[in-house]
Give the backbone structure.
Amino acid sequence: MVCTAAGVPIRDPKYYDFRYPNADKLMIIADAQWTEGTDTFKIKLPSDFVFYARSYSHYAYDSDGSTIKIDENDISSIGYCRDYSVTNYGQLSPTQLSLDTFHTVSLWHGEGYWTTGEAFDAIVLVYREA
């Protein structure tokens, strides 16, 4: 859907991770905060799927700070980055993103007097439908 909206057609994309040969799905859930403030979304991982990897990516540019939280718990923080970008990424534990529970993911981006930056986050799931 993202590629189509961007005018880049993708036909029958494939994904394979040699660490997880039984995984046959990849999902990327992304969010952006273009102005100062917080944006949130909810995510629920069904227990009838097998999740091999849960990870995140966090990017900020020209920001007074940015934070990703899951259920009010800090996952990633980026400090002041005026005129440059910072990217954090890492794994999420099964406790941080447990099954059969709605989790609230929030992305905060701060701007100072002269700052007009942006922040992005993504949750990446490697899994198999049961």
Notes: The chain has a mean pLDDT of 90.
